[in-house]
Each structure stands twice: as structure tokens, then as C-alpha cells.
Specification:
Length: 116
């Protein structure tokens, strides 16, 4: 079974770039037809899909985040990562990584707070 674990700083200052890593175990990020996403949930709000990198390294982003988001991967480490630039306190959220192959797997989420 695929397992995902998010890691990164819990506190980021406004205007900086947030960087998060998702470490995958129990499966390869290059396995056919898997899609690897970043999703977040701000306090008191619903889930927001940010973007995805597919098994063949194609990337797609939500229009809401496209201008300041980059998702990449490291196949040797079996990880994929999120970079979100120019953060503001409105980017405070629990950030999740997610795998989708028809079956969805979720990381436990990591809280990120952006200070003003």
C-alpha cells in the first residue's frame, strides 16, 4: 500500500517561498497512471487542489496557484515537492500530498503557518 509523508517547515515568513516534500513508500512515483498532487486546507475552509505531477512527469496547476507554484520530483529519492512563492498569511493551511490511481492515498498533512 502506498504511504505518503509530508515534511517541511511549520513556519514561514511572508514573501518567502514555502517548500514541502512528500516522501512516498510502498510504490514508485513513476508507476504508470499514478498522479501525485498537493492539496491544502486553510483554517475554516474546504480542500483546495493546488497541482499535480503525473507518473511521466507532466505537471498541471490550479489557475488559482499557477503563477507562484512549482511541483517537481526526485525519482531517486521517490519524492515529489511543492514550492509556493510569495506567501502571505492567507497561505496558512494544512498541506497534504495525495496519490491517485483510481484509489486515493493521503499523507497525514503538515501544518504551515505564514507569519506577517
Amino acid at each position: 500500500q502506498v504511504q505518503l509523508q509530508e515534511s517541511g517547515p511549520g513556519l514561514v515568513k511572508s514573501s518567502q517561498t514555502l517548500s514541502l516534500i512528500c516522501t512516498v513508500s510502498g510504490g514508485s512515483i513513476t508507476t504508470n497512471y499514478y498522479a501525485w498532487s498537493w492539496i491544502r486546507q486553510p483554517p475554516g475552509k474546504g480542500l483546495e487542489w493546488m497541482g499535480v505531477i503525473t507518473y511521466d512527469a507532466s505537471t498541471y496547476y490550479s489557475p488559482s496557484f499557477k503563477s507562484r507554484t512549482a511541483i517537481s520530483r526526485d525519482t531517486h529519492k521517490n519524492q515529489f515537492s511543492l514550492q509556493l512563492s510569495s506567501v502571505t498569511p492567507e497561505d496558512t493551511a494544512v498541506y497534504y500530498c495525495n496519490a491517485d490511481s483510481g484509489v486515493r492515498y493521503w499523507g497525514q498533512g503538515t501544518q504551515v503557518t505564514v507569519s506577517s
